[in-house]
Amino acid sequence: MKKTHITCPYCHAPAQLRLASSIYGIHTKHRAAKLYVCSRYPACDAYVQAHKATGLPMGTLADKSLRQKRMQAHRTFNQLWEKGFMRKQDAYAWLCVRLGIPEADAHIANFSEYRCDQVISLCKDFLNAQRKVKQNGSKQHRVDR
Predict the structure, then answer these.
(1) How confident is the prediction for the chain on average, in pLDDT?
(2) Which of 16, 116, 121, 139 matches a 20 to 30 Å C-alpha distance to 93?
(3) Alpha-carbon dihedral angle through residues 65, 71, 74, 79, given to the nearest 10 degrees
(4) Angle at alpha carbon of residue 66, lines to 115 and 99, rounded to 5°
(5) Number of Cβ within a 10 Å radius of residue 104
């Protein structure tokens, strides 16, 4: 496992790799799951999940507000491919074009609240347009690459 040094973007304290159960307690989904947690936790509640295989952070440390915004952005974005409007890879390509960012930067776990709001708005607009098409009796618009 590669050692990495992460600093909390909120209080600038170092982050520590810890078992997720230290935060979630008995509600931990996977016993071996790990998080990078601000060393000032719980005074500073910033943390991010670590990849199981590499131990690297899945994104940037986030406080409760940003974690909730990222979850909302993921839930909204995932509907694009889960409902069959696009394949998952096409949904990411679509998002990159709409946000004007390279595909390498299209990781919601790295997004700010502002960027998450953009994702949510773009996806809701797309989904609402698809609902209108369906209500008018037309076929849904499918995006293929």
Answers:
(1) 91
(2) 139
(3) -120
(4) 10
(5) 7
Separation in Å, CA 96 to CA 74, 80, 111, 131: 14, 14, 13, 23
Query: Would you state the pLDDT for residue 127?
Result: 96
Write out pLDDT tens, residues 69-91: 999 999 999 999 999 999 999 99
Paired with 38 in beta bridges are: 15
Collect the ranges in the chain with pLDDT lower than 50.
145
Cα dihedral sign for 107, 31, 36, 64? positive
Q: Cα(first)–Cα(last) distance of the chain, in Å?
A: 36
* 10-34 burial code (b ≥16 CB/10 A, e <16): eeeeebebbebbebeeeeeeeeeeb
What does the pLDDT read at residue 24? 86
